[in-house]
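Appendix B, Record 12. Input sequence as logged:
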Amino acid sequence: MNDQVTLEAYADENRALIHNNRHDEAIAICRHVLRYYPKHIDSYRQMGEAYLEKGELENAKDMFRRVLSADPENVIAYVGLATIFEQQHLIDEAIWHLERAYELAPGNFDINKELVRLHGEANHPRQRIKMTPAGLARLYSQEGLFSQALQELRAVTTAAPSRFDARVALAETLWRAGRLREAADAALALLTPLPYCLKANLILGAAWKESSLPESDVYLNRAQELDPTNKIAARLLVTRSPLPVAQISVPRHIEGATLQAIDYTTPVPSAQVKTCVLLAGLQTAGTTTVREAVRTRDHSELALRAFGAAIERTAESVSIRGPQMLHAIEAAVPGDISSAAFFLCAAALFPGSSLVLDALGMNPTRAALLDVIASLGARIAVLNLEEKHAELVGTVQISAPANGLGTAKIDGALAAQLIDELPVLAATGPFTRGGIRIRDAKELR
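Logged structural output:
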């Protein structure tokens, strides 16, 4: 499972979750994304949809209003608010919001049908919905009839300055008409009531960027906070967008839940995976077993025993019963033989050298490195060997052979035990007489 998920993939996952009435999971994912991108418009919109489907109308209303403060042309937010106001028996408010949605999506049959129905409930029935001036202006703009579109939009915004959707359309139409200075002025005026209006920030930032004004970055950075992928910038500004489309990922969201005991066979021998499963097993009701074809290092098993956990070990598996409570201990961590491997191999390469390493961990599942170095011809002595919390600790003395290192073969169980030391052994191989042959090291791929 990939530990990173794109915003687009999470949006698709949320749509499926909402469709399947798994609203809390969708909300949790949206909140997770917002921890990394606190102003991400789509996350607020999808959270609004989930709250609405869940019946939490005030939370949904808050989310949709946040969306409209950044994107006053968001059809889903208008439809969502219309649904909420209808359920709250505020029919005129519902009609107003649905009319805005219809202006933005006049070809949407469902919106048209709902608007006809709402007008009927408000006692002014209509057979069909007439296009409003703002809706007509949008159609003009889409056809490239910018003069007619600007005339309609200026009339609407003059009569109703709080029609932020129309003011955004005005700034965009001016931009598309090539009237950059007027577009920038319209966008700047819009940022006073709506400082995080996405399109206003994009238009102003792009216009000032083309004029080489350094303040442009302030507005472009703000736009990226709202839409980190820059897809809206690409649709709005097309080839003149200073913001390249990006694929943005966040860490995968994992929701905590009650764990269940499992019997797990590792596909590739891995001490890290084994440790994760055993630690999870501590929180379960039952016995968790990890099976491995090749025995891997057992530091975690020994440590868990030292902390008071009951663990059972066989030749091919290790089991832990849960739930268990651990107790505190005072322990000294011995030197890591994987870190020492670089010094041990270096000392083994130079005739006449001698090296002593104190307090080195000598766990049998880790000390195979010493066997390999000895098989190459180095002289190794282990001194002062003692046990501390079931871990063997000792002093290692190594000296290089006078005639240089010989040859070695590492495969099977030995390769699994030496997985962390294989890179340094591979680097040592060219300086031996016969080389070091390594097989069965799939985990390094």
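The longest strand covers residues 379-388.
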